[in-house]
Each structure stands twice: as structure tokens, then as C-alpha cells.
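Q: Given only this backbone (107 positions), what sequence would you predict?
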């Protein structure tokens, strides 16, 4: 499909590694995420995955999570989530993200 070809072109350009620290970082509100995974195929660097089912024994479908050190801050996942599903992904400025989640993002 045309969408898949576009993703492959972006992925080839990015080459699965970040060249610099992104200005924004995707953050999933796991309590608000339905686990539909509609965002997963849109990620150009393939850094979105379901949370381990063992973390959420009481949920039949676990939410998704971002592998932060692979995220390039492109905002595609947040836009897709907002427009097609549930609005569970927010883009945070990197400094706010690092402070809130107490981690340093590589880049």
C-alpha cells in the first residue's frame, strides 16, 4: 500500500537510530489507552509495543508503550490516536518529559 511504502521510506531515512535528541516525546496515558494498537503501524521507527500482559492482569487488552530511546518525536502516533481512536498519547517537551518520568533520553 502507499502508506506502507511511505513508512518504509521514512524508516529507511531514520535508519532506526536517532541522530539527535527529539524536541518532543510521546507519552502514553496507560489508564486511558484502550490497547487498540491503531498507532503501531503508523510509527516510522517501530517503537510502539503492547505493555506486558503480566503488568495488567485485570485488563483483557493491555495498553501500548513507547520505547523512549527509539522515539524520534514525530507526533504521528499522537495524531493517529487523537483522530482515529481515544486520545491517549500526548507529546511532551523533552525537558518536561524527562522531569516527569525521571529519565534522560539519549540522542
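A: Predicted residues:
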Amino acid at each position: 500500500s502507499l502508506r506502507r511504502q511511505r513508512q518504509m521510506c521514512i524508516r529507511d531515512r531514520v535508519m532506526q537510530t536517532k541522530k539527535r535528541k527529539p524536541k518532543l516525546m510521546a507519552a502514553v496515558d496507560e489508564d486511558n489507552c484502550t490497547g487498540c494498537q491503531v498507532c503501531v503501524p503508523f510509527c516510522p521507527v517501530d517503537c510502539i509495543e503492547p505493555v506486558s500482559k503480566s503488568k495488567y492482569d485485570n485488563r483483557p487488552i493491555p495498553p501500548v508503550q513507547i520505547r523512549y530511546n527509539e522515539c524520534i518525536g514525530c507526533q504521528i502516533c499522537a495524531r493517529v490516536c487523537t483522530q482515529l481512536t481515544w486520545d491517549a498519547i500526548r507529546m511532551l517537551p523533552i525537558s518536561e518529559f524527562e522531569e516527569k518520568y525521571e529519565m534522560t533520553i539519549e540522542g
